[in-house]
Amino acid sequence: MPNTSVIDDLSFAVTSQELETPSGPLAGTPGIVGIPMAVTGAFGLGLVNTGFVPASAAAVALPTAVAASAVGLLLATVWACALGQNASAGVFALFFGFFASYSALSLGLINGWYGITAEQAVNAQSLWLICWLFAFALLTLVTLRLPWTTTLMLVFVDAALVLLLIGTVDNNASMINLGGWFTFAFVAVAVYLYVDVMWSQTGGRGLPLGKPLVR
After folding, report:
1. What are the DSSP calls for 16-45, one per residue?
2. CB of 123 closer than 8 Å to CB of 153
């Protein structure tokens, strides 16, 4: 199977219909939009969690998460839906939900939109992390039939969320910092996939992605 057949949309096209090259005004690869937008937001969150900016200024990541990542991933989701690439659309929608809900939670806590007191803020953040850890762990399991680089990328997401959850519950800055470094690991693999997609779409050969862990 050609390398580009699996990775056109962030390695999540898994059916023969989704592997066909679409035609028409919407023809293309939504991953060209979705991957860099996810990378941008994740890189910003990694900088926040590793202490590049002080905890009191953590909201500086919100413009990127809202105006770039959430909007870009929503566009990629709609584009994939229009092409009938259901698996890709589902994954992009999950990442869109992550960044959109992160922005909503952060803005809500800062501005007191939800009536959450300062004492309840940790519970709200922990609940958010638990929900997304469950969602991404499930996504990781269902990608075992895809090239192992995709699964590895999601394992880094899972690890980052686990560490951030522990750090939030225990008020442990070291665990939050470590979670930020695992976020950078996710970014590194996503950048690799982005190079693969971009090279493939510009007439070059894609990068090796590895074999699926489960067939």
Report:
1. HHHHSPP-STT-S-THHHHHHHHHHHHHHH
2. no
Distance CA 206, CA 199 (A): 6
Side chain identity at 77, as an amino acid letter?
T
pLDDT in tens, 106-163: 999 999 999 999 899 999 999 999 999 999 999 999 999 889 999 999 999 999 999 9
SS3 147: strand
The torsion of the CA quartet 1, 187, 106, 158, rounded to 10 degrees, works out to 70
- Amino acid (1-letter code) at residue 164: L
Tokens representing 198?
Answer: 């971009």
Considering the chain, what percentage of its residues have pLDDT values greater than 90?
A: 73
The Cα 153–Cα 150 span in angstroms is 5
Query: Any idea which residue has 């300062």 for tokens?
Result: 118
Cβ(71)–Cβ(95) below 8 Å: no
The SS3 call for residue 1 is coil
